[in-house]
Amino acid sequence: MANSMLRRVRVVAALAWKAHPVATAGSVVLGVLGGVAPVATAWLTKLVLDALALGEGTAALVPLGAGLAVAGLAVIVLPHVSAYAQAQLRRALRLLIYDRLFRAVNTHPGLSRFENPSFHDTLRLAYESSHNAPDRLVAGALAIGQALITLSGFVVTLFAVNPLMVAVILVAALPSVRIQLLLSRERAEVMWEITPAMRRQVFYGDLLTKPEAAKEVRLFGLGDHLRARMLGEVRGINRAERDVDRRTLRSQGVMALLGSVVAAGGLLWAVVSAASGQLTVGDVTVFVAAVAGVQAALTTIVTQWADAHNALLMFGHYTAVVEAEPDLPVPAAPTPLPALSGRIELRDVWFRYSDEHPWILRGVDLVIPSGRTVALVGVNGAGKSTLVKLLCRLYDPVRGQITWDGVDLREASPADLRARIGAVFQDYMDYDLTAAENIALGDLTAAGDLERVHDSARQAGVHETLTALPRGYDTMLSRIFGDRDETGVALSGGQWQRLALARALMRVRQDLLILDEPSSGLDAEAEHEVHTSLRRHRGDRTSVLISHRLGTVRDADLIVVLSDGRIIERGTHDELMAAGGEYARLFTLQASGYETGGAGGGVDGGVGGGAPEAPEDILRTATPSTRSAGR
Ligand SMILES: Nc1ncnc2c1ncn2[C@@H]1O[C@H](COP(=O)(O)OP(=O)(O)OP(=O)(O)O)[C@@H](O)[C@H]1O
Questions:
Q1: Confidence band, pLDDT 50/70/90 cuts, at residue 473
Q2: Which intervals hold domain ABC transporter (predicted)?
């Protein structure tokens, strides 16, 4: 434990030096001067008083008085200069520490860490401690250093007047050190225990304030319920904090009482000694200043030590995040991933999200030939999205392997792999940025290429919508982050989905296009347009397509039916229909659902009007009954 604390001290010292060497060195020098100044003031006061009592002349008194004036000035000015230097250091440290923290977060190529509650607790405490732990440590170290200098000066002074008093004060302070350290550890443990409650509190607070949640919260009348839940969490947090505060108060009260008794005893002794002529007036002043100075310095040392100790414990969360191994093994010398020319192959792939979770994929064998379109279909929870997440190496298979032209994905660099993939996930992101930025995020190397941005938007069928916005592509797509004098724009669900599609299409050089329900939120006409455009865009590109609207996948080169993590059927549309299995059942079911709706005149948005003739037409022109926008 002591070793790891020492290591953390070294880490913080190195960080401070790297962040701002001048402010670090300046703070240390100012700390030393700040420590010497009170002792010098006390000594000079004694010398002036004794010189006055002895009736010394001006020649002796003026230098002493001048020295006293300089020391007094230093006592007043130094704290302000020191506070400025420390603030400079704090700002520089904050920048460096955030940089390292989020660099470390970005080194995890996969998703598993982000789904782990313990990682979230550590991350939250790391974030919080990176706010203030280094500041507290640096400030604490400087305050301790300064107090140690003052303490040594006063101890020497006190020793000259009454050696016994030194021993009494030091011994009286010892229990306080121990108690403060125990309390600081307890405080750190309580912080760890209440972190899940703090995260839940933030979660409920977000639900009560975020525009995305406001609709349901109002519709279902959840406001008071969520507020009560949030307050419940806050009460729990308060209870835990209050218990530690009470223990702190008790022990600090006892220590303060002990200190006062010792100081009062010393004062009594000094007065009696002065009355009997054993001490001069100057001796009494310096003795009283020294007792107060030693006690104040000891209190500073003990409380700052405890605070620095607590900051060090909290800083452990930061080092845990910064030093964590990547969640997926990244090869030291990755095999370069060539442009896909042969096939992507899944060989006996088994996957579950953790040892505690059930198997989601159970021995999947699949070949995705280069230049072909493979469609994955199956009921909710069959494992389709999981499979495409594995293709992007957001997780590794637990057993089996996935190869890209023979290269195991584990041997390639995740960044290389992802540069070759364009994807729209079911749970795509809406960024509170401008329309152009929302699309350009798909390929940051082309962020300034507005023609590319517009092209992608055209292919996704959203160009006209974006041009018609108040500031065109520069319109902020956010109701909460726009300029204060600007009314932000909110897009509809389907428009956001097209924007996500445009983002994926920005990657013009990608070898693999993954579309996980790319049109679930689109109206019938838009879906038809988008699919026609996508078919054109896919061209001879390798694509994996997931859709519950079976009409949109019927022209795929290979349709794979997943059920309970296994491939139960594969073939072309015609082959699968002829086989009369699960695919044929689902396709017929969907078509008959629409036919019933169509016959009853209930199908909205049919472009041609009247009852459609073939299932694929129906499926292209009707609103689906199977799922919503997938959000
Ligand atoms: N991050 C996760 N952690 C744990 N379990 C998960 C996670 N994501 C998905 N699952 C589980 O894995 C199973 C398969 O989910 P997946 O999203 O792959 O299915 P799907 O076939 O895409 O379904 P849908 O058609 O509803 O989109 C589900 O039972 C789901 O609960």
A1: very high
A2: 344-589
- How far, in Å, CA of 618 to CA of 468, rounded? 31
Ligand 1: which atom is nearest the Cα of residue 562?
A: 21
User: 40-75: buried (b, 16+ CB within 10 Å) or exposed (e) per residue?
Assistant: bbbbbbbbbbbbeeeeeeeeeeeebeebbeebeebe
Residue 319 has pLDDT above 70, yes or no: yes
Q: What is the Cα–Cα distance from 141 to 221, expressed in whole angstroms?
A: 52
Q: Alpha-carbon distance 87 to 58, whole Å?
A: 43
What tens digit of pLDDT does each residue of 353-376 get?
Answer: 999 999 999 999 999 999 899 999
Q: CA 547, 548, 554, 557: dihedral to nearest 10 degrees?
A: 40
Question: Is residue 545 over pLDDT 70?
Answer: yes
Element (H, E) at 268: helix 223-275
Q: Determine the Cα–Cα distance for residues 430 and 252; give it in Å rounded to an integer.
A: 52
58-84 pLDDT per residue, tens: 888 899 899 999 988 988 898 899 889
> Which of 141-155, 276-290, 479-493 shows the lowest mean pLDDT across its residues?
479-493
SS3 call for 345: strand
From atom 29 of ligand 1, which residue's Cα is the shortest distance away? 381
Say if CB 469 and CB 489 are below 8 A apart: yes
* pLDDT given at position 618: 31
Rounded Cα gap, residues 98 and 104, in angstroms: 10
Q: Give the pairing of strands 558-563 and 399-404.
A: unpaired
Tokens representing residue 185 in the block: 């550890």
Count Cβ atoms below 10 Å from residue 581 Cβ, excluding itself.
14
Residue located nearest, by CA, to atom 9 of ligand 1: 386
How much distance in Å is there from the Cα of 631 to the middle of ligand 1?
Answer: 14
In the numeric block, which tokens belong to residue 596?
A: 């019933």
Question: Which of 120, 351, 360 to mutate to test ligand 1, by most ligand atoms within 8 A of the CB atom?
Answer: 360
Say how many Å lie between the CA of residue 383 and the centre of ligand 1: 6
What tokens does 352 get?
A: 């579950």
Residue 624 has pLDDT above 80, yes or no: no
Q: What is the pLDDT of residue 605?
A: 32
Neighbour order of strands in the sheet with 558-563: 421-424, 512-516, 542-546, 373-377, 558-563, 566-571
Gap from CA of 388 to ligand 1 centroid (Å): 11
Give the Cα separation of 16 and 3 in Å (integer). 20
CA torsion 86→92→96→101, rounded to 10°?
60
Is residue 138's pLDDT more than 50? yes
* CA-nearest residue, atom 26 of ligand 1: 380
Closest CA to 9 of 144, 189, 152: 144
Other CB atoms within a 10 A radius of the CB of residue 610 amount to: 9
Residue minimizing CA distance to atom 3 of ligand 1: 353
Q: Which helix (H) or strand (E) holds 594?
A: helix 582-599
Instruction: Give me the domains of the chain, ranges plus CATH numbers.
Output: 2-181+261-323 (1.20.1560.10), 339-420+531-631 (3.40.50.300), 423-509 (3.40.50.300)
